[in-house]
């Protein structure tokens, strides 16, 4: 999954994607996107659409509610062919039980001779793992549910990989107010990290901007976790993300590979 993310960062960055780019056959580096606000969802959607439109991958996108309109991040993709979106299947799972059932049912695709997915995307894990609006501190049951869901996603992707072709997982987790204000890691993240081996952390540079200017701010993007160690040692793991007034996303390397210290591979959230 890290290879797809780095393709996204290069594709929407200052330098063209190398002509020699190919997807890796390794799929263990599944990704958890951790962010404040809705920027994590925007990155998931941009990744799903780009994977379908430019890499030819079949994507299954799990989310709570139907998108009333496409996110503005698609302004990043000029001349998008609407037919390419047919490679994305949206599944609207409103509860944790529904999500578990929907993911567990995916193996039936092979039995029906249907084309299996190459990318599983889950938006808003935190909404599935908490009782909406009732508490900010996860209970033991929340952590058990997180382990169950993350393991199911991992095992489902492994099933498709072993029986058809490489399948990857990418999910988002939105930090709650307590985590943002106290810099205290959410206990659920440690559970999810066991199965989603790469953390993609989006941190906003506020610089005194009002809350309504969030989507036009500059963000820092860090890739960290055990899955990073399986990638190229000279790969960039720290990027800057600028979001324009029209919603277009622009990435640029924040530190060159030669300057990137080994200690930055582990990031506390």
TrEMBL record:
<dbReference type="GO" id="GO:0003697">
    <property type="term" value="F:single-stranded DNA binding"/>
</dbReference>
<dbReference type="GO" id="GO:0000724">
    <property type="term" value="P:double-strand break repair via homologous recombination"/>
</dbReference>
<dbReference type="InterPro" id="IPR027417">
    <property type="entry name" value="P-loop_NTPase"/>
</dbReference>
<protein>
    <submittedName>
        <fullName>ATPase SWSAP1</fullName>
    </submittedName>
</protein>
<dbReference type="GO" id="GO:0097196">
    <property type="term" value="C:Shu complex"/>
</dbReference>
């Amino acid at each position: 999954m890290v290879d797809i993310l780095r393709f996204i960062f290069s594709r929407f960055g200052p330098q063209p994607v190398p002509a020699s780019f190919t997807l890796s056959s390794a799929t263990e580096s599944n990704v958890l996107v951790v962010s404040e606000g809705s920027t994590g969802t925007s990155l998931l959607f941009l990744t799903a659409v780009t994977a379908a439109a430019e890499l030819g991958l079949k994507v299954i996108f799990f989310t709570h509610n139907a998108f009333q309109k496409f996110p503005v991040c698609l302004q990043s993709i000029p001349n998008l062919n609407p037919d390419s979106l047919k490679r994305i299947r949206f599944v609207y799972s409103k509860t944790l039980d529904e999500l578990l059932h929907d993911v567990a049912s995916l193996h039936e695709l092979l039995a029906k001779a249907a084309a299996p997915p190459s990318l599983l995307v889950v938006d808003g894990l935190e909404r599935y793992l908490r009782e909406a609006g009732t508490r900010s501190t996860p209970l033991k049951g929340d952590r058990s549910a997180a382990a169950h869901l993350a393991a199911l996603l991992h095992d489902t992707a492994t099933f498709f990989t072993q029986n058809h072709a490489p399948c990857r997982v990418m999910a988002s987790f939105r930090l709650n107010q307590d985590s943002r204000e106290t810099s205290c890691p959410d206990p659920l993240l440690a559970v999810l990290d066991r199965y989603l081996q790469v953390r993609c952390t989006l941190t906003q540079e506020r610089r005194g901007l009002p809350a309504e200017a969030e989507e036009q701010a500059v963000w820092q993007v860090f890739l960290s976790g055990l899955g990073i160690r399986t990638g190229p040692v000279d790969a960039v793991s720290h990027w800057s993300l600028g979001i324009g007034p029209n919603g277009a996303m622009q990435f640029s390397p924040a530190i060159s590979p030669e300057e990137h210290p080994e200690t930055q591979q582990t990031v506390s959230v």
